[in-house]
Amino acid sequence: MLQALGLSPSEEAVYTALLVRPSASAQDVALQAGLGEAESDRLLLDLAARGLVAVVRESVTAVPEDGPRPARYRLTPPSVALAPLLAEQRNALHLAETAFSKLTEQYRTTAARTAGGVVEVVVGVEQVAHRFLQLQRGAQRELLVFLVGEPIAVPREDTDTSESSALERGVDFRVVADKGYLSGHEVVQDVRQAVAAGLALRLADSLPLKMVVSDRERAMVPLDMTESGGEPSAIVVHPSGLLTALVHLFEREWAQGRPMFTPGAGVGEEPAGDQQPTEEELEVLALLLAGISDRRAASELGLSIRTVERRVRRLMDLSGVESRLQLGWHAARVGWL
């Protein structure tokens, strides 16, 4: 029990032997602890020097005529003798815990530097917005984007500005949008304008996360707001296996996505007579081919459902078809979408 306080097994044996005696000689302790008398005497003297035992002093009148008796020892009260040892061990443990924390943090920092700083955590609206725009505006070759839900940290107008800048620089800009992202006429109009400027867009029924990948060298993915106390937060991923996995995820969703508002499909062009679909009709067609219902298309375009149905009917008349399935085939064949 006492080894944790710095006593050796032999010292503990001597100490506990004195627990059952008011006082004892080295010979008595040796018999009780199973030690040699010389070793017992040495250990008792050592414990006495450390204040754990005390030497019993005999009065002069008690000294026999044949010479002094062997020294006798008694325990110093444990509450007095062991308390300082316990305090020392507690302090040592505290220092060890502090050293452990510092070494662990140093190791993590070194490991992060060795790995090239694979993940960088960004917390707060301004910080997240700054890093997002930095990735988009810093792209020189390619941008890969997942669009999901409403913007939280970066206003849509700021995103539109950075997109325009990237397209003007000739960046290959590909976007996969969650079907729920196209909510509202203004969003649809903004998307169509971006496609007309060179952005490539495909639609997915659902996406697992928001994401932007810049030049396949850095990616940014939002974190759950509950993990940062309700503040918007994100991780910036640097070159690593994780970044490669995110790029592969994008390419898989891109391959499975449905093209929308493809360039050259009449977007931004004047209709060539009554036998050509108008921009408004092509807008309706693109949403329907993306799997959006008439009612939702009407809501997102700010139209009545009867107007949507009338535009679809005119497209079918222009195509000379009798079903919407045939309309989709005809639109693909003649390059409307």
Task: Write a concise keyword list for the protein shown above.
rod-shaped, 337 residues, three-stranded antiparallel sheet, eight-stranded mixed sheet, 12 helices, alpha+beta
Describe it.
With 337 residues, the chain is α+β, with helices and mostly antiparallel strands. Mean pLDDT is 80; it is low at 264-273. It is built from twelve helices and eleven strands. The strands form two sheets. It has an eight-stranded mixed sheet, with helices on both faces. The protein has a three-stranded antiparallel sheet with strand order 1-3-2. The chain is rod-shaped, with a radius of gyration of 41 Å. Helix 7 (185-196) links the parallel strand 6 (172-178) and strand 7 (200-204).
Topology summary:
Blueprint: H1 9-19, E1 24-25, H2 26-33, H3 37-49, E2 53-56, E3 72-75, H4 78-114, E4 119-123, H5 125-138, E5 142-147, H6 156-168, E6 172-178, H7 185-196, E7 200-204, E8 211-214, E9 218-222, E10 233-237, H8 241-256, E11 258-259, H9 279-289, H10 294-301, H11 305-319, H12 324-334
Parallel strand pairs: 5-6, 6-7
Antiparallel strand pairs: 1-3, 2-3, 4-10, 5-8, 7-11, 8-9, 9-10
Helix pairs in contact: 1-2, 1-3, 2-3, 5-6, 9-11, 10-11, 11-12
